[in-house]
Specification:
- Helices cover about 35% and strands about 25% of the residues.
- By secondary structure, it is of the alpha+beta class.
- It has two domains: about 5-190 and about 345-405, FAD/NAD(P)-binding domain; about 195-345, no CATH class.
- The strands form seven sheets. It has a seven-stranded antiparallel sheet with strand order 16-15-12-13-14-11-17. A three-stranded antiparallel sheet has the order 2-4-3. A three-stranded antiparallel sheet has the order 6-7-8, with no helix packed on it.
- The longest helix has 17 residues, at about 390-405.
- The protein is elongated and about 85 Å long.
- This is NAD(P)/FAD-dependent oxidoreductase.
- Keywords: FAD, Flavoprotein.
């Protein structure tokens, strides 16, 4: 198994447990294991998402949704919950459907995976690079190794089955070794990122959040609704992150430059908001506008929007000029933010792109091009929106690959 992340560990464990007679070895290029597991969810690890069916689950994958349905039917959310429960890890569901370990610590998940691998007899070697993969006429593979960890193995290692779970990478050239094996690569671009707004009119509002906002990319058929957070560099939160995932390729084509329109009150349209404001104005004419936030919006945000609309801090509703009221309506429904770049969401980099799914048997995760070669996780052209979906894809593809590889009775890496 190549790659000491979520998919690599799950594949190694599934393979070793399904056929204990196999020698299963997991190779990790760096000195760290399960690094993304440990940092994800702010150190809590968003393991999966509470979806009742495969059909419901696949709706959250911008890339891979159609192909993953059969895979999720074999090993989905319920199976993931049961897998961790069997190993003493209870998962809890939050109001938005995200599922975390009951301990709220990603170390709980990492330790469970490491212990499961140990009990299954998986041999784990870090600091070892695979410089060359040579398919052999016998159907096995010859691996040329380097790095300090390679001293624990022969410099050339022959294996009967090979799982590649090396994760995503933003640089196309870093997939050349997979192209050399005969695979087509969907060009990688970033997914799940926040928007940089250098001259944001909201810059003074860092830390302000709203539970529901709609973000629309002007001139494009891209929009998403959800919680939104104002940051010191622009805007973030699920609404932005999910929009970036669905629009990953288009945003890359645009050079991450455009105008994001924020609807702070998505339950309203212009047709419903205008009469609401008129009636509110008639009934509350003596109230100052800026000091009395409406629609449940945070005080700081409301003051900012009224200021942008040209409504002074002491101005009463009865005295607001029509032009200023129209401007406030426009800002509530379509606050324009000039996006000029992106920022990776914390340290949770996700890639749109990777090994083409048309070349993979999604029932076994085996390559259709190279027999005995398997893939799992983000190295594939699969990515989900934020909320535990990328980990679920890793668990599922790793498990299916590992079980399929267990059919071999020879040495397996």
């Amino acid at each position: 198994m190549l790659g000491g992340g979520a998919a690599g560990f799950f594949g190694a464990i599934a393979c070793a447990e399904a056929n204990p007679s196999l020698q299963v070895v997991l190779l990790e290029k760096t000195g760290k294991l399960l690094s993304k597991v440990r940092i994800s969810g702010g150190g809590r690890c968003n393991v999966t998402h509470a979806c009742e069916s495969a059909a419901q689950l696949v709706a959250h994958y911008p890339r891979g949704s159609k192909q993953l349905k059969s895979a999720f039917q074999q090993f989905g959310v319920a199976e993931t919950i049961a897998w961790f429960a069997k190993r003493g890890v209870a998962l809890k569901m939050e109001a938005d459907g995200r599922m975390f370990p009951s301990t709220d610590s990603s170390e709980t998940i990492a330790r469970a995976l490491e212990e499961a691998a140990r009990q299954a007899g998986v041999r784990i070697i870090t600091n070892v690079s695979v410089d060359e993969i040579q398919p052999l006429p016998t159907g096995s593979f010859s691996l040329k190794l380097s790095g300090s960890g390679a001293t624990k193995l022969n410099q050339t290692l022959q294996v009967s089955r090979l799982l590649i779970a090396t994760g995503g990478n933003p640089k196309s050239a870093n997939y050349d070794w997979l192209r050399a094996l005969g695979h087509t690569i969907a060009e990688p671009v970033p997914s799940l990122f926040t928007f940089n707004v250098p001259n944001s009119p909201l810059s003074e509002l860092m830390g302000v959040s709203v539970p529901q906002a709609r973000v629309v990319l002007a001139g494009e058929k891209l929009q998403y609704e959800g919680p939104l957070l104002v940051t010191h560099w622009g805007v973030s939160g699920p609404a932005v992150l999910k929009l970036s995932a669905w629009g990953a390729r288009r945003l890359s084509e645009l050079g991450y430059v455009g105008t994001a329109l924020i609807n702070w009150i998505p339950t309203f349209t212009e047709e419903t908001l205008r009469p609401w404001l008129q009636q509110f104005r008639q009934e509350n004419g003596r109230k100052t506008v800026a000091a009395n936030p409406q629609f449940g919006l945070p005080q700081r945000l409301w003051r900012n929007l009224t200021e942008q609309a040209g409504i002074g801090p002491e101005l009463r509703w009865s005295d607001v000029p029509a032009k200023a009221q129209n401007r406030l309506l426009e800002l509530l429904l379509r606050s324009p933010l000039a996006v000029r770049g992106k920022t990776t969401y914390k340290e949770e980099f996700v890639t749109c792109g990777g090994v083409s799914l048309a070349e993979i048997d999604l029932k076994t995760m085996q390559s259709r091009r190279v027999p005995g070669l398997y893939f799992a996780g983000e190295v594939l052209d699969i990515d989900g929106i934020t909320g535990g979906f990328n980990f679920q894809a890793a668990w599922t593809t790793g498990y299916l690959a590992g079980r399929a590889m267990a059919e071999s009775s020879a040495v397996t890496v």
